[in-house]
Every structure is written in structure tokens, then in C-alpha cells.
Design goal:
418 residues, 14 helices, globular
Length: 418
């Protein structure tokens, strides 16, 4: 029997080209990572970013509004020196200054956008065209109905002699300035911001040591705020709340100048509670402990406080006693509640109300000298009787009783009347 013999088979290995897919996936991952890093604020020192555009701070195009370019000129050198970027919100109203690798940048820009929507909805930053009417002939007199009618009718008063003597310019207040919020990691950076501005504006004469126990600092002139994001001396605080609250205060100051403390606080809290349903921005409460229950439940506190009242007399007086330096919870709750009531009742007339406060302040702040010159007292605010008359003329003499009824019906947690 014959057997066919087969030659031995030799196994050969064929070299194959490795798949390019893993390399492509890795390259895609790096690309996405870099885009995410860019979205979080990575870039060159001092870089200015708006939407998908980037510029060095000394190469800003002239197509951007002049106030935006002015803000960049002020902040660009400091940002480049300290490794920060300048992020302009999509509406070109606010600058956020962040450390290049700050991963909160995108979230904070979103908070700014949301806060601006609420501010616009409430018409808090809407300005009213200036009127030539002033109260020079009645300086020091109560702001009664005759003065209110004269202001509304637009009768000519003692108009300023020239543009340089406009009340706002005399106080250094500039309604065109772009607000800037800087997020810095520690108090050393906060102090570097203050030194930078003292070099630009020696007349400011800030004292750095005053602000070392604060998580945030706000300046009216020039218009900016600084938030210390790490190693703060406050036991309880929230970055989102702090950003929204300081932005609200900056927008109020830009549109209306300094306001009475209870109004500034109350309107700030209105924005904060409409966004977050709670309050974490406590103004000058410094580092004292704040219990978690103090951040919300203000609507219940107000209702409990007024439930036995039969008349509203005294609500305005109690609310206007609010003082950030002498914090008392009841006065803070009432300031928040009363501004919520006033905001809801006035609606589109709120800017007119705030302008009346501004006109009173501007007239009362002018101090005439014997030689015919005058100075401007930037600390002056309208008296309580004048503030009451403004609200009474707009809402009626019995506005306190209406506010009391609203409080008894109950406020929403956002501060809006039911």
C-alpha cells in the first residue's frame, strides 16, 4: 500500500500594519481635552476672550465698545502679570477675571448670564433719561407732593451750568463703565488688585488691611468686585451666590449710583432668591457663623413676625433700619420682603422710583461754598422721610398696609408675593 507523503508545512507569520484607530481615538481625546481646557479659561496670560474669539489685552479690536476697551486697558496689565484671563460675557456687559486654569469659569459665566436675565426682568439696571430738574431751591426741605409733581412734570429747575458739573461726574460715578468681577485664590491676590488700582488712581487711598477678613470686596469707583475663592475667613458661603449678588450690586451702582442700604440689600436678595431660592450673600457680616437655616425660610419668618399686626405702620421704619454693620435678622427679612413688594407693585415704574432716590441724593450731596464753588458729599443719602414720600407718592399713603396684607398672605420662597 502506497502512502502519499506530504511535504512538511511551514508556518509563516505575516506582518500586519497595526490599526490606526487607537491613535485616532487618542488624538480625538486630546483634542476634546484641550477644548475643555480652553473652555475653562486656559490661554495666554492676560488674554481676553469673548465667545470663540481671543485677543491679547493690548490687541483689542476697535470694533468692541469703548467701555469694554477701557476695562481691558485697566485690567489687562494686572491679568498678564498674575496669570489671569479676562472673559467677556456674551452680552458684552460684564468682565469675569479668572486664573488661567480656573475650572469654575464656565459655570460662573452661566451664573452671570442667568443673573443678568433676572436683573433685566426686574428692570433693576434700567436707567431713566436725566432731567434738568433739581431741588436746589428746596435743598434740605422734605420731598413732598409738590416736589414730586414738579419732578414728574419736568419743570425746569436749577440746571447745572455745564457738563463737568453734572452730579454724577462730580462724584466720580460713571454709568458707562463695564463692571468687572475678579475671582482670586487668596487675600494676597486681593491685595495685589488693590495695589494695582491704587497705582492707577492714587486718590482712592484704600487701606488694604481693612479687607483681609472678607470673602469679597466691592468698589463703587472704579466699578469692580473681587471674590476670594480659597482660604476665606467665612465659615459658610457659596461662590455662585456671591457672584450673582455682587453682579447685582455692581449693576445697581452703575445705573443708579449709591442707594440706601436697605434698598441695595433687598434688591440684591430679590435676585439671589429668584435664582437660588435662598440667601448666602450677607454683606458686611464678616466671618461670624451663619446657621444653615438662616439661608432660607425668610418668607416664613416675615409671616410669623407680622401675623398679629393689624396695621402696617412701622413696616417701612423697621425695614429701613437694616444696617450691614449691625446685622439683625428681622430687619434683613423685612428689607428683603418690602423690596419684593415694591418691585412687584411698581413693575415697569421701578426705574422711575430709583431715579427719584438718585435725584434726591444728587441734590442733597451738593455742598455750596461761600466763594461760589461747590463740593460733592459722596456719603450722602436721602433722609427716611424723603424715602417714605417717594414710595407714598408712587404707591399711595397706605402702601404699608398693602405690604402687610401681602406678607400675611405669604411670600414665595423666591421673595415674590403670592
Amino acid at each position: 500500500m502506497n502512502h502519499r507523503r506530504h511535504p512538511p508545512r511551514v508556518r509563516t507569520a505575516v506582518a500586519k500594519r497595526p490599526s490606526a484607530l487607537p491613535y485616532l481615538l487618542f488624538a480625538l481625546f486630546l483634542l476634546l481635552l484641550s477644548q475643555q481646557a480652553n473652555a475653562q479659561g486656559y490661554g495666554k496670560d492676560g488674554e481676553v476672550r469673548w465667545e470663540r474669539k481671543r485677543w491679547s489685552h493690548d490687541e483689542i479690536p476697535t470694533t468692541l465698545p469703548a467701555p469694554v476697551r477701557d476695562a481691558v486697558a485697566d485690567w489687562g496689565p494686572w491679568a498678564e502679570e498674575h496669570g489671569y484671563n479676562l472673559l467677556l460675557d456674551e452680552t458684552q456687559q460684564v468682565f469675569l477675571v479668572v486664573e488661567k486654569r480656573d475650572r469654575t469659569a464656565a459655570k460662573q459665566l452661566k451664573v452671570i448670564d442667568e443673573a443678568l436675565e433676572v436683573i433685566e426682568e426686574l428692570a433693576l439696571a434700567k436707567t431713566v433719561a436725566p432731567s434738568p430738574t433739581t431741588f436746589g431751591k428746596n435743598s434740605g426741605a422734605p420731598f413732598g407732593r409738590s416736589e414730586f409733581s414738579r419732578l414728574q412734570s419736568g419743570d425746569a429747575g436749577d440746571a447745572p451750568e455745564d457738563e463737568e458739573k453734572r452730579w454724577g461726574r462730580a462724584s466720580g460715578y460713571d454709568p458707562t463703565r463695564v463692571p468687572v468681577i475678579a475671582l482670586v485664590h487668596d487675600h494676597a491676590k486681593l491685595n495685589s488688585v488693590l495695589r494695582h488700582w491704587m497705582a492707577l488712581r492714587p486718590e482712592l487711598e484704600w487701606q488694604e488691611k481693612v479687607y483681609k477678613n472678607y470673602a469679597s470686596f466691592i468698589s463703587e469707583v472704579p466699578l469692580f468686585a473681587v471674590i476670594v475663592t480659597r482660604n476665606t475667613d467665612r465659615e459658610e458661603w457659596d461662590l455662585k451666590h456671591e457672584t450673582a449678588a455682587l453682579l447685582t450690586r455692581l449693576m445697581l451702582k452703575r445705573a443708579h449710583g449709591p442707594l440706601p442700604k436697605w434698598i441695595e440689600a433687598g434688591l440684591t436678595w430679590q435676585v439671589e432668591t429668584r435664582l437660588f431660592q435662598s440667601v448666602w450673600h450677607f454683606f458686611s457680616r464678616e466671618s461670624r457663623f451663619v446657621s444653615s437655616s438662616s439661608h432660607s425660610g425668610w418668607e416664613r419668618e416675615i409671616r410669623s413676625h407680622v401675623r398679629r399686626r393689624r396695621e402696617g405702620a412701622g413696616l417701612f421704619s423697621d425695614a429701613t433700619k437694616f444696617d450691614p454693620k449691625e446685622w439683625r435678622d428681622r430687619e434683613a427679612y423685612l428689607a428683603w420682603g418690602l423690596t419684593g413688594f415694591v418691585t412687584d407693585e411698581l413693575g415697569d415704574r421701578l426705574p422711575q422710583c430709583l431715579k427719584l432716590f438718585k435725584d434726591l441724593r444728587d441734590e442733597g450731596a451738593r455742598v455750596n461754598q461761600p466763594d461760589g464753588t461747590w463740593t460733592y458729599d459722596i456719603s450722602f443719602l436721602p433722609s427716611l422721610s424723603d424715602q417714605f414720600c417717594v414710595l407714598a407718592n408712587l404707591l399711595g399713603d397706605d402702601f404699608e398696609d398693602h405690604a402687610l396684607k401681602a406678607f400675611k398672605r405669604g411670600l414665595k420662597r423666591s421673595g415674590e408675593p403670592r
